[in-house]
Amino acid sequence: MDFTLSPEFEDLRVRTRAFVEQHVLRLEAESKNYDPHENIRLALLGPVQAKAKQAGLWAPQAPKEFGGMGLPIVAWAVMYEEANRSIFGPLAFNCSAPDDGNMNLLAKAGTPEQKEKWLRPIVDGTVRSSFAMTEPAPGGGSDPGMIRTRAEKRGDKWVITGHKWFITGADEATHFILIARTSDDARKGLTAFLYHRDQPGWRIVRRIPIMGPEEHGGHCEMEFSGLEVPQENVLLNVGDGLKITQIRLGPARLTHCMRWLGLAKRCMEIAQEYVSQREGFGIRLADRESVQIKLGEIAHQIQIGRLLVMYAAWKLDQGDRARKEVSMAKVHVADTLHNAADVAIQLNGARGYSKDTILEWIYRYARAARLVDGASEVHKMVLARFMREEGRDFWSWSAGNRV
Q: N or C: which terminus of the chain carries fewer CB neighbours within 10 A?
């Protein structure tokens, strides 16, 4: 493990930072640039994405042969953190959820034909995508083994019936990856299917209202009433659905953390700027010990999060699934983002609670961090299970000899 950035990755970091500063933050600063769901208006997104492509800062996770940057995961961490200094940053570089995780999954699991048909348009930015797994009770949530949406083989096609909800981006997506049950086998009972928005046999029931803000396409409830999918649109093999979720969700959870660290740092940036100028009772807020303790604690937690994320990214790059490391990062960084936004609002007072800063946007967004891609409690259960199984070796260094 070496936390020194290579010249290539340091250049990537600097260029990403400069691009956000020059092209993205100014869009975020104008209320007229937001859509009704508090995200960037799509009419403005295309031009800034074109500039990112021209700058060579496009789809860092996607293979080069499909128009991406083909970077290792540790480089994602470097770029995503800088990208999400702005709430619009990841979209500008085509590294936002859920497209981010779907591109990575299709690149790893798709056949050459599937990559050409389903991956390339997402990398190009001409379509959006969605990953349909979560279901209302008693269906599958954090536990995919509870999935009830079923796919039955009829001739050379699979016919899908069932119910999904809180499917991110579905209202704007064209390409979908759907997890459905094809048998009752505990390990091989799920299968992943690819389908297009225009296919009949399914519908969006509603765009579920949330605390907000929202990704483009919202979080939708969906009903399947006979969607037909040909065998050629099965991702990997029949029965590999659980494997598909594992391939996708590990890196996707970590990329959330990378982006959240950028937002947490932005909160501290806004807080520090304000307390350095604001005076009360004859003293600057920045000179009060109580304020310094608050800022110092969040700085401490952000740096711990960065180290957890980078270590997990390094392990993934080594071919390890890094389940413990991703869960640790997910729990810690989700809490850190929420705390950073809360402290920044407190130090800004009424200004922080208003829409004069981006802090209240981040605060509402941050509450979802402890739920998405597995609730914090589930990840803590994962860690407890590993600790029970591994004992003292739970804390072993990857490269060290176990004693």
A: C
